[in-house]
């Protein structure tokens, strides 16, 4: 770069000197003043290059002769994960590295890998409450029914004992208790979370709504549809009217459980909102809202279109089983304000 620049500059200066001095010298000879003209030409030939170089060094950009530095290639998240995994292969006891890898997998919605990485963090520090909560959440996300039980529940219980201020730990523990029909315990757990939240925030409102639902179910278990929290002006609210086909009425039994749910048209199968009722309450009307999501990350307002269905479970479990009774309304916009009608008319 530098050599080319100097060659071009020298050529330009030579051309300028030729165009300037040749007419001057020819005119001097014609006038009989060849010596003076030659001296003037010599002085210009000497001073002009010096002046040009000095001017460039003074007001130019000599640093540009070194070329423009190459910008480093941006790293993709897959590249970063690859480098982090290589690092952890060399240093498998790097706790912060495993936590970072687990959180990154969480962002990438790779729940199995996130759970495994949190497991490595717990191998290094068995009392790490953040890793316990992360493991439990990742485990629930990789399950089809997204239930929190077994080791996940045990870890959450330990985590909130070690860190009673763990907001995510308290939230998930309350969800697990709610999923196991321990409504009074769920309400108590979520009440521990409330003082840590900003009053008036959407999160605080969602927690308050969940507490209201849990309290209602704890006070009158199995007959909860009319006591669902009032629909807030903000966020989607799908009013679902569910009825049982007369042809299937003889298949309804005491103790059957009705699930009314909405899940994303495209995405994970976990319901974005679900209501659980005593099937004896049919026909029933349920309003599905953000407050009925199973986790804070997946709620009704996170999708634009949802599949709305209803199922009468013989086992009381959320997962469909043979013999369950089903019906659905297909896919609807989450902004739907007119009642959505479902007739349960099929046997799973």
List descriptors.
348 residues, alpha+beta, Serine Threonine Protein Phosphatase 5, Tetratricopeptide repeat, membrane
Structure, briefly:
This protein is of the alpha+beta class and 348 residues long. Helices cover 47% and strands 15% of the residues. The longest helix is centred in the N-terminal third of the chain and has 30 residues, at 2-31.
- Mean pLDDT across every amino acid position: 80
β-sheet strand percentage: 15-25%
CATH superfamily of the largest domain: Tetratricopeptide repeat domain
- The helix content is 40-55%
Task: Please name the CATH architecture of the largest domain.
Answer: Alpha Horseshoe
Strand count, sense and barrel status of the largest sheet are: 5 strands, antiparallel
Q: How many structurally independent domains? A: 2
Widest β-sheet, arrangement of strands: 3-2-5-6-8
How far apart are the termini?
76 Å
Question: So what's the CATH class of the largest domain?
Answer: Mainly Alpha
CATH topology (level 3) name of the largest domain: Serine Threonine Protein Phosphatase 5, Tetratricopeptide repeat
Number of strands: 8
Order of SSEs:
HHHHHHHHHHEEEEEEEE
Q: Segments where pLDDT lies below 50 for 5+ residues?
A: 221-233
Q: What is the structural class?
A: alpha+beta
Q: What gyration radius follows from the Cα positions, in whole Å?
A: 37 Å
Number of helices: 10
What is the molecular shape? Answer: elongated
Task: Please give a structural write-up.
This protein is α+β, with helices and mostly antiparallel strands and 348 residues long. The protein has 2 domains: 142 residues, Serine Threonine Protein Phosphatase 5, Tetratricopeptide repeat (Alpha Horseshoe), CATH 1.25.40.10; 111 residues. It is built from 10 helices and 8 strands. A hairpin with an 8-residue loop joins strand 2 and strand 3. It is elongated, with a radius of gyration of 37 Å. It starts with a helix and ends with a strand. 32% of the residues are buried.
């Amino acid at each position: 770069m530098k050599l080319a620049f100097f060659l071009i500059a020298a050529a330009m200066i030579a051309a300028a000197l030729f165009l300037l001095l040749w007419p001057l010298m020819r005119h001097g000879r014609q006038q009989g003043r060849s010596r003076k003209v030659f001296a003037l030409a010599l002085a210009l030939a000497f001073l002009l290059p010096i002046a040009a170089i000095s001017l460039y060094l003074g007001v130019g950009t000599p640093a540009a002769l070194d070329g423009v530095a190459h910008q480093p290639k941006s790293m993709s998240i897959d590249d970063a994960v690859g480098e982090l995994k290589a690092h952890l292969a060399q240093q498998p006891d790097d706790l912060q590295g495993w936590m970072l890898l687990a959180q990154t997998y969480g962002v990438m919605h790779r729940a199995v890998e996130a759970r495994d990485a949190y497991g490595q963090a717990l191998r290094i520090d068995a009392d790490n409450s953040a890793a316990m909560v992360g493991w439990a959440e990742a485990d629930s996300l990789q399950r089809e029914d997204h239930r929190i039980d077994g080791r996940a529940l045990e870890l959450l219980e330990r985590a909130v004992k070690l860190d009673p201020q763990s907001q995510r730990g308290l939230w998930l523990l309350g969800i697990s208790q709610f999923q196991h029909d321990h409504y009074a315990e769920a309400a108590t757990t979520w009440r521990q979370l409330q003082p840590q939240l900003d009053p008036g925030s959407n999160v605080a409102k969602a927690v308050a709504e969940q507490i209201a639902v849990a309290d209602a179910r704890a006070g009158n278990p199995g007959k909860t549809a009319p006591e669902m929290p009032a629909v807030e002006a903000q966020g989607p609210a799908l009013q679902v009217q569910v009825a049982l086909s007369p042809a299937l009425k003889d298949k309804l039994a005491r103790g059957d459980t009705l699930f009314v749910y909405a899940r994303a048209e495209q995405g994970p199968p976990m319901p974005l909102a679900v209501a659980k009722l005593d099937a004896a309450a049919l026909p029933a009307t349920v309003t599905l809202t953000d407050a009925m999501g199973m986790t804070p990350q997946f709620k009704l307002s996170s999708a634009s279109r949802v599949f709305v269905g209803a199922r009468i479970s013989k086992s009381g479990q959320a997962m469909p089983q043979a013999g369950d009774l089903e019906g659905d309304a297909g896919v609807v916009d989450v902004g739907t304000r007119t009642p959505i009608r479902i007739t349960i008319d099929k046997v799973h």
